[in-house]
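Why predict the complex rather than its parts? Because the way molecules touch one another can change local conformation, and only a joint prediction can capture that. The input here totals 821 residues.
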Amino acid sequence: MQSPDDNAPNGTETSNKGLFGRYEIDPAFYDEMFSPDGAPYAHCRALWEALDGMSPDELLKMQSQVELSFLHDGITFSVAGENRTLERIIPIDCLPRVLNLEEWNHIETGLTQRLRALNLFLQDIYNEARILKDGVIPADMILGCPQYRPEMRNIGLPQGVHVSVCGTDLVRDNSGFKVLEDNLRVPSGVSYMLANRKAVKSNLRSLFRQYSVRSIEHYGALLRQTLSELSPRDTEDPCVVLLTPGVYNSAFYEHVFLAREMGIEIVQGPDLLVHNGFVYMRTTDGLKRVDVIYRRVDDIYIDPLTFLPDSQLGVPGLFHAFRLGNVAIANAPGTGVADDKSVYAYVPDIVRYYLSEEPVLPNVETYLCRNPGDLEYTLDNLDKLVVKMVGESGGYGMLVGPHATAEERDRYARHLRDDPANYIAQPTLDLSRMPCLTPEGAAPRHVDLRPFVLQGRDINIVPGAFCRVALTPGSLVVNSSQGGGGKDLWVVGV
Amino acid sequence: MLSRNAYGLYWIGRYMERAGFVSRLVIDQLRAIQDRPVEDIDIGWRRLYSALGSDPVGGRLDPNLGEEQVMLADVYTLTDDLVFEAANPDAVLSCFAAARENARQIRNNITYEMWTCLNVSYLEMRDTQLLDIWNKQPEDFLVKAALAVRTFLGVAHNTMYRDHGWHFFQLGLYLERALSITSLLESHIRLFPTSEGHREWNWSSLLGICEVRSAFRHLHTIKFRPNDVIEFLIADRHLPISARNALARILYSLAELAGDHPEENDGPGIQARHAWALLEHQWPTRNVADDAQTLGLIDRINSACRLLNHELEQVYFFYEIEDTPPS
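Output of the joint prediction:
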């Protein structure tokens, strides 16, 4: 798929001067910009040439200006501090990641296939449950999953769409792209994809013009269209709102951003009420009926009458209105069962079962500790594996075996033996690397990417992603909550 | 528009106006300590806290101030309380923080320019402490704060779409202004009765707080009479900060919000028209030599404005759901 530029100099040196003068390529890791012999890939060559002529100081100055503008614009996420909630920016690395059209088409095909299958899976397990009866997936794994919502059984959803917005984490190693994780509940990060694009586009103006970078600015309009297509009411302009937990949620900026991009109201639980099975929002002109709720609140908080009784974030009676078909909720409650880390291991089988196709994008090899053989293997190889709790996300509850102390591994092993079904294990990934800006010049850092897939009547993907980067040298942790940063992703070519 | 958003806009208007008002009050005091006698400074603090309807930090003001060291220590404490104290909701920084927090929650209902203007001002101010600026020119910080308020209001005026959101913002701004100017005048007249021989400085200081000294001098160049100042600040048609002008703006915004159904839910309109009627019909016919009558009228206008706040909450922000909603 990749072909080094024939005109580039041969050898393992990426450049003997400039920004890339000290950049080192390690063949153990796929490099997103350079082939193993040190030449930039064809689609990265113009970027390499332009950047190599710039000094790190010049670029760092630009980068700090961008970060200051993020702070001024309020492009922040919230983290709990000792005495107060702190607002932090997600650091941006201004050197963009570039994918050519062939690579992107491969990703797009794979993600489309995957979301189609996952929606069919969700529709099935909450209705006929054929896949469980056929023994493709252990029924106890699904029915016993904390994210499985029995309340969702036998509810007819418009177009059978449970997941309208999906953020899939992809990694690349020397064998190609792999799916690391599906985020099917309330995936976040798309606002940073757009903010990073805006920042890089305005600061690398001439370079951006040289490339035919495919546009992502229509994401808001596409999301609005997708959500409108879910409306249970046959109207040209359904009332779509975004339900947020509020200003203290870590992704609040994103909620505001998306509501603005879509031109819809951003509401909190107390702004909504349910009357006679319909949902209304409280406006200065009285009550107004709501057709579609893009919820950025976790399942259990959306309705205290159905789920968590003491939730202050939800709307009493909302699930009843949803069940009656008077309001659409995106993503639907109960989608978390399909991104549970145990179920993840079965997604290739899910694709084959519903679509009779081979998965375009493979999974990362996964050991289910609920299986005695896998548990034994995991315990024997803790120093080589990454072990994750099935219900956790954001890098929490995880053991990175090679980086853990013997004491940490022993403690984790005890937890594993106590509750093996709660864990999965994966080999330590050789996440691809790419140049990142440092005061000493470009240096390699590990990256992944999270494209966003939308499903209404059709499946749509904007050609971009929130590209996450582990800013600490050698680190594999890209999560923004744990010190990761972001990059712009350019899909180039026509 | 969503009631919570309208409420947020209303309070952005109120907090920003209050931030400017408190800034100007404290600037006046900080300038006074440089060259005014102790009794003027002391009475200035009384006027200030009385206008804000709150007590000075640490309890009542010491009426026996005299030692310079003690006075300066108190000035420091009081200034800190009025500018930086997070526990004081009227403190300048608290007002900016509250306005910015409201703006953050309803960013979709304000313009990008308004948000960045407010956010940048707040970020520049938030890490400052009085200790950092006390030995230089502490009032410079407040001059910048007051300028930030004016800039923000100008940006809002020039960028905001004139929909309902704009009118709720205007209601908050002008209601706060009407409350501030009437409270300040009430406090001032109680401390400096017009019937007593006045010192021009006290009334000039009042005009300075309102930033209308030069405008006043254009109208009243020869004689400086307290009642002229009162008339100017309460009833002048062309003065942006007069109570009359604030009420006119409130009435206009209420009419715009009521639209084609002015008779429905008219609680706010009733209170605003009540205040307006006091200004239009009773204010001109009062006995200007009778401070009690003047104070009574100002107090009634102020009370009507407070009730207007309550009515706005009842009608637009937190109304009861009584009827069956439309399906």
